[in-house]
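Service request form, structural biology core

Requester: graduate student, group of Dr. S.
Request type: structure prediction, single chain
Budget code: on file
Notes: please return the result as structure tokens.

Sequence provided:
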Amino acid sequence: MGEKHSQGKFTQPAVYRILDANLDRAREGLRIVEEWCRFGLNSTQLASQCKDMRQELAAWHSSEMRACRDTAADPGTDLTHPQEEQRSSVENLLQANLCRVEEALRVLEEYSKLYNSQMSAAIKQMRYQVYTLESDLLAYKRHQQLLRSHLYLVTSPVESLFSVVEAALQGGLSILQYRDKTADDSIRLSYAQKLRQMCRHYNALFIVNDRVDLAMAVDADGVHLGQQDIPIGLARQILGPQRIIGRSTTNPEEMQKAIQEGADYIGVGPVHETPTKAGKTAAGLSYVRHAAENCPIPWFAIGGIDMNNLTEVLKSGADRVAVVRAVMEAQQPTLVTQYFLSQLNRIQALRSIEAQASKNHAQPDR
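Core staff response, request fulfilled:
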């Protein structure tokens, strides 16, 4: 295990007790995170990462450390904090325990320098692994939510912005993009902060249009970029791997480029001409059909889609749509949102049944 440094009569047991307590603390925290990765996210990869780190820590947890344990005389067992008595959400619980693991690993890294230099080096590397795990967990949650989202609302600068958005969220909306090309930055920041809070309350993804800086400022879930905005790679460097990046596309070439550059999703359109994209020629249903056959990442048909033409868009192969006026200008945004979701869920169910039937038909009789 490497060379151990000699310790004074009173110092050595204290160092062992510190190492013992923080090995326990790190392992416990990792187990809590592991359980959610396993049962909450159904992610074998993330659960295995946690398990591997727990087992590595167990290998460093020597009998001499355990022998110095004195729980009865530990003044820390009576210390508590009101924030530890309850958790507001699973995310809050995971964040608290990841912080607990990171703090424990930092203590282990420093105090193991007095015990075993190899242990200190190994713990240092593990601490970086936990930072990566923290980002991966957040990215995984966001991407799973993106996969489950089939109706995407893009805002327009209406007077009733907040009431319309909340009505849509109450109707089941799970992804919202804040888009305002004309407002002052101070107003956009204020509106984005409020919309972000609303999306958190309803467990919906919050995306900012164009502005990577604004997305960072309000801790948005991601950013949506147009063809004239900064490259996806640069946005990824700024935002990090845990946030979602979308790109508008109008033809197969733009679609392929966005995929190659690492977009998490794309917009496909405009399906119909729309005042939201004044002067933009409609891509039409042919591009929707192309995306249905060729796009390997989530994509949303967008552009003039409303309740009257939704069916033809779905028949062309779309199972995700983005809307603006259909909800933002609706008299009853909640009901309109629910209508869109019901139709999208129905087409999803039908395609799932058809796919399963096709799979069963393809299997040879035994």
